[in-house]
Amino acid sequence: MLEIVTPTSLSSLSNSIANTMEHLSLLDNNIPGHSTLITTVELERFVNLRSLALDFCDFTAEMARVLSDSNHVPLQRLSLLVHNVSVMHKSLDNMPNDEHWKALSRRSPSLRVYIMAFDIKSEDMLKILKPSIPLERIHFDSYITCVSGAIVDLISRQYDKFLTHFILMNDVIDTSGFPDLSDNRNEDPLVLLAWRCTKLSLLAIHGYTVWAHNLIAIARLRGSNLKVLEVTEESIDFDQGELADQDVDPVHNLIEQVSLGLGQPWHAVMDIESLSVFTEPNRHFYREMQSFSEDI
């Protein structure tokens, strides 16, 4: 019930309802200040909770402790929305540390986490991305703050055993061109992500420079296991050597090589509106959270 739930909504539920609830989604970025939609005391009543979706700033160390308790059924899915407005008004001081995540994973070995981050600074992401989070899906969306190559590299190192979905969106109006994650690096972070994260099945990119030869490398590394590769046409760039070869049409060669690598016909996304995640990120988070949790 987006924009309907208030901080007093859950306390009005009877114990019998709270005890049988298996999925709880509490998201509202419209509440100003420091109010939260759920407290740790309230969460203690939800002993059968298998799926939870919250604003990241509301998911505290104490909540992680409660969910790790033996009187709660193991949590299977946790979807967290990290929004710059929320981070500004609230705080990251109370978030779980790595030991809390370890305890939660011990209690719930099949727990998987989905994070969507809006305009979050790199220094805040470094605080958020604890090594023991069983992170399966992550989506970055930027209007002001771009993701750094160092963050992509960290994700590929820490979550190589879990990561299946990686979405990178940038809507920054910048006439100097899209940011290049491979700047001043021997290896492109997106190629390393495809190499390390062997379970990667969806990769979507808009608003970051993706070099054609790196796109071919990604397709070859993950092959037919990469079910979805969505890259907007305007994000793709060619190096001078590719453009200088008079005998080969670089665009045709890219389409051919990526299609061969994936084992299925591929082409760049021409119309930005057709990119499956782009039109309404909040609604996309809601849909993703539902599909993420539907089979448990």
Question: What would the keywords be for this entry?
Answer:
single chain; 296 residues; alpha/beta; Leucine-rich repeat, LRR (right-handed beta-alpha superhelix); eight-stranded parallel beta sheet; two-stranded parallel ribbon
Structure description:
The chain has 296 residues and is α/β, with parallel strands linked by helices. The chain folds into 2 domains: 1-133, Alpha-Beta Horseshoe (Leucine-rich repeat, LRR (right-handed beta-alpha superhelix)), CATH 3.80.10; 136-295, Alpha-Beta Horseshoe (Leucine-rich repeat, LRR (right-handed beta-alpha superhelix)). It is built from 12 helices and 10 strands. The protein has helices spanning 15-20, 40-43, 61-67, 84-89, 98-107, 122-128, 149-158, 189-196, 212-222, 240-244, 250-262, 281-293; strands at residues 23-26, 51-55, 77-83, 112-118, 135-142, 165-170, 202-206, 210-211, 228-231, 236-237. The strands form 2 sheets. The chain has an 8-stranded parallel sheet with strand order 1-2-3-4-5-6-7-9. α8 runs parallel beside α9 (212-222). The relative contact order is 0.10. This is F-box protein 33. InterPro entries: LRR_dom_sf (IPR032675). It comes from Myotis myotis (Greater mouse-eared bat).
Structural class: alpha/beta
- Tertiary shape: elongated
Give the total of beta strands: 10
Q: Please indicate the percent range of residues in DSSP E strands (runs of 2 or more).
A: 15-25%
Taken in chain order, the helices and strands follow as HEHEHEHHEHEHEHEEHEEHHH
CATH class value of the largest domain: Alpha Beta
CATH topology of the largest domain: Leucine-rich repeat, LRR (right-handed beta-alpha superhelix)
Count of separate DSSP helical elements: 12
The end-to-end distance, rounded to whole angstroms, is 21 Å
Question: What's the helical proportion of residues?
Answer: 25-40%
How is the largest sheet built, in terms of strand order?
Answer: 1-2-3-4-5-6-7-9
Low-confidence stretches: none
Largest sheet: 8 strands, parallel
CATH superfamily label of the largest domain: Ribonuclease Inhibitor
The second-level CATH architecture of the largest domain is Alpha-Beta Horseshoe
Domains, number:
2
Mean pLDDT score, rounded? Answer: 89
